[in-house]
Amino acid sequence: MAENYLFFAENEDNDADGDAVMFPRSKFLGAVSTAITTLEFFFNDRENAAANDDVSCTISTGQHLNVCDEFASLANSNRNNTNNFTVIRDLNDKLPSNEGAISASGISKISAIAITTS
Amino acid sequence: METYLYFRKFRPASQSFTISATNVSNWANIDQGSATSFMEITGIGAAYNTAGYLIGSETEIASVSVKAVGSNSNVGSNISGGAVVADEVSSIPMAAVDIGNSRLRIEPATGSGDSDNKDTADGYTLVAGDIVTVNLQQGLETSVMYPASSLIGIEATATGQTTLRFKSLKNDGSDDIITIDHDATKYENIVEGINAIINGNNHGGVVTVVDGSGDTEASRIPRVNKALQGLGIDGLGIVLEASY
Lengths: 118, 244
What we know:
The structure holds 2 protein chains of 2 kinds.
Chain A: E1 5-9, E2 20-24, E3 28-35, E4 38-43, E5 53-59, H1 64-75, E6 85-90, E7 110-116
Parallel strand pairs in A: 1-6
Antiparallel strand pairs in A: 1-2, 3-4, 4-5, 5-7
Chain B: E1 4-11, E2 14-18, H1 21-26, E3 39-40, E4 61-67, E5 89-91, E6 97-100, E7 103-106, E8 131-136, E9 143-147, E10 151-158, E11 161-166, E12 176-181, H2 187-200, E13 206-213, E14 235-239
Parallel strand pairs in B: 1-13
Antiparallel strand pairs in B: 1-9, 2-8, 3-7, 4-5, 4-8, 6-7, 10-11, 11-12, 12-14
C-alpha cells in the first residue's frame, strides 16, 4: 500500500524553518496531552538526531480524543490513484496545487501549530 | 491500515473536601493542604505519590472553589472584595492554588506565614466547615495515543500489574511505559485482550484501551475496552520522558 504523507503548516508563509513540515505516516510515534488545549504529536526525527520531531497543536478545549480520532482517520486514509498527500492542518490555507486535496482544511479543532525539528 | 491505541489516566471529574477544625489547626502558618493533614485527591488508581499516576501539574486543575460556612473577611482582596458571606461560593485564582503529589493546597490570605505561603490578593483562609471543590481536566500527560506498531512488548511487572512498553515519543533512550492495574493472575488475559484490540479493530480510527477519566462520555467511549472487561482494571500509569 502506498505511504500516506501528513502535512502540517503554521500560520506563516511557508518560507522559513518550521513553517511547515510533512512526515510519512510510518514515522508517527504517538501523541500526548500537555494541557487542556494542547496536544503534541511526535515523529521520528528527519535528520536521525537524538531528539524526535514534534508538532504541538493548540486544540479546542478537552478535544484530545476527538482530535486523535480525526488524525487517525486521516493518517489511515490511503486511497488508490492519489499521491496520498494528507493535510492534517494547514493554517496557512495555501494548499499545494494539483494535489487533489484529501482534506482542504484538515482538523478544524486545531487552531495553532508549533513545529519543532532538530 | 494502522490501529491507534488511546490511554487516559484515572481521574475523578471533581472532588470536594469539608474542612475540619483539625485541618485548620494543622495548617497554621503554612499552606492549607500541606503538613499533617492535606486535601488529597483520590480516585487516581494508585497511591497519591505514585509516579505515573499522581497529579503533579496545575494543568490538570480546571478550577477550585470554596463554599463559605459563614462570613469570612480573611480572604484575598480579589475575592469578593476581601470578604465573603455564608454559602457564598468563590472561585480561587490559580495563583493561590498549588498541586503536588496529588495534594491540593490553597494559600491562605492571612496569618503569620511568609510570602511563599500567603497570598493577600488571591488567597483564602479556610475555616472549619468550608467546602473546597476541585474540578479536574485533561492536562500534562493525562492521555496518550500510540500507533500499535510502536508497541515493543508487554510484561508482568507485579501481582496485578502489567506493563506495556512503547517506542519513546522523544527518543531519549528509554521506552515509554504504560502500566495497567488489574486483578491478580490476569496477565495472560490482558495480553490476549491487547492482541484482540490490535488485530480485531482495524477500523482506521482510535481504539480506547483504558479511559479512566471521570467525565467519560459513556455512550461513546468505553471506559475499559470490551476486550479487557472483567479483569478488574482499576488503575493506569503513564511514565513518559521529562521535559514536555
